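User: Hey, quick favor. My workstation is busy. Could you predict this chain's structure for me?
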Amino acid sequence: MFTGIIEAKGYVESLQPKGGDMRIVIKSDTLDCSDIALGDSIATNGVCLTAVELFTNGYAADVSVETLKATTVGQWQTGSHVNLEKALTPTTRLGGHMVSGHVDGVGEIIARTTTARAEHFTVKAPAELAKYIAHKGSITVDGTSLTVNAVNGDTFELTIVPHTLSWTIIEAYRAGTKVNLEVDLIARYLERLLLGDKAAVQDQKSGISEAFLAQNGYDSRP
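Assistant: No problem, here it is.
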């Protein structure tokens, strides 16, 4: 588990194809690697990776075909910059929100504007994730815990303060940049719980609709 509070920035030193999978070496000049052990989890642009080799200033991780398809990892190149966060411990301050490091989908930055010292970003999410994104709710973008300032269909808006802008890779975002998205854990579990016994049916899709909620006692009237 992670908090979405980025500890350091790093970069991809190498990508080595291995039988259809990929071994990736990540290096960082600022991440404290002294307490990382083999098998530890490290969120790398929001993707939970397992350290399989350690260096004084980085680590190597194996990435499966599924991860290459479902995240932006498949688009990384040597020199690509990444956000880094080590797994939380019982004494970690939970400054962001509960983050699993399991990416739900890839979004795209479609607009960037400036107001005073803040930067505003409009992000387009995959349509199937739109229902999990709420105004003033939490979302993880490339591993960074952020607050949703507005939602319009399958797009949402973020306001990034100078510290976050400089401490993460968000400064480099431009229209067209692809980003890893992880929606709030509570929203995903709540949807599953609402299915009740129907959750045991194989290939059960979400099934959560206004009609479903009405049948189960929810009244949407003010």
